[in-house]
Amino acid sequence: MAHAERKPRVDTYELVFAALAHPARRRVLLTLYFSGGSMTAGEIAAIFEHAWQTTTRHLRVLERAGLLTHEKRGRMRIYRIQRKRLELVRDWLAHFSRNAKH
Amino acid sequence: MAHAERKPRVDTYELVFAALAHPARRRVLLTLYFSGGSMTAGEIAAIFEHAWQTTTRHLRVLERAGLLTHEKRGRMRIYRIQRKRLELVRDWLAHFSRNAKH
DNA sequence: CAGATAGTAAGCCATATAGCTTAATATTAC
DNA sequence: GTAATATTAAGCTATATGGCTTACTATCTG
C-alpha cells in the first residue's frame, strides 16, 4: 500500500454517507447552514433534547466526515459547515444521470 | 400497497439516507443503474463476495426505502431501480444552496 | 412425481451506534 | 487561587446492523 494521505474517494463516500445517515446530524447541518454557517457547540447542542454530550459525539462524526470544521475561540468551539463536502453526495448522485445504457 | 402517498417526508428521508449509508447498497444501485436499470436478485448477489442471503437483506432495505421495486417473473425476482427516489437526496441537498443568510 | 434452481425467511452472533452518566480539561470571572 | 462556564472524553448499556448458517417456499425441468 502506498503511503498515506491518499484518501481514496470510496472511504470518503463512506464517511459522508454514514454521517448523513442520522437525523440529528442532518439537522445539525441544516441548522448550521440556516444560521449563517457557523455556531458554537453549545448553540448546536441547544437545538436537541438529548444530552449535549451526545451532540458532541455527533459533531465529531460530522467533522471526521469533513462536513464540519471547528475553531477554538476562548472556551467555545465554533463549528462551521463545509458545504463543499456535501458536493460529494451530489457527485455520487450524478452517476445516475450520466452514461446510462437505458 | 396501492394506498396513499401519506408518508411524512421526514421518515422518508430517514429510510433513504439510512439505506444509502451502506457501501454494498450504494453499489447495488450503481450496478443496477449501469446495467440498464433492472437485474435479477441472483445477478445482483453475484457482484458481491458475501453470502447472497446478505444481499437479499440489503435489497429489502433498499426496497423499504423506495429505492428499488421488484417484480416476480417465474422463479426469479427482477429488481428495478427507482431513480426518482434518489431525487429526495437531491432535494435535501438543495437546502444548502437556497435561502442562505450568508 | 423427484430433483434442481432462484430466492426469501429466520435465527445466531459479533460489532457498531447512540443514548446515558460521570469525569476531565480549558477558559473566563471574581 | 476558587468558582463558574463551555466543552470534550471516557465508560456503560441497550439496541441496531450486518455478516453467517440453516431452513423453507416457489418454480421449472425431466
Low-confidence stretches of chain A: 1-8
According to DSSP, the number of beta strands of chain A is: 3
Mean pLDDT of chain A: 89
Task: Report the span from N to C terminus of chain A.
Answer: 38 Å
Strand order of the largest sheet of chain A: 1-3-2
What's the oligomerization state? homodimer
- Structural class call of chain A reads alpha+beta
- The secondary-structure element order of chain A is HHEHHEEH
Largest beta-sheet characterization of chain A: 3 strands, antiparallel
Residues in helix, % of chain A? 40-55%
Description of the molecule:
With 102 residues, chain A is an alpha+beta fold. Chain A has five helices and three strands. The first copy, chain A, has a three-stranded antiparallel β-sheet. The interface between A and B is medium-sized, with 28 and 28 residues. The first copy, chain A, binds a DNA duplex (30 and 30 nucleotides) through residues 22, 24, 40-42, 45, 50-54, 56-60, 72, 74-77.
Short description:
The structure is a homodimer of 102-residue chains. Chain A is α+β, with helices and mostly antiparallel strands and 102 residues long.
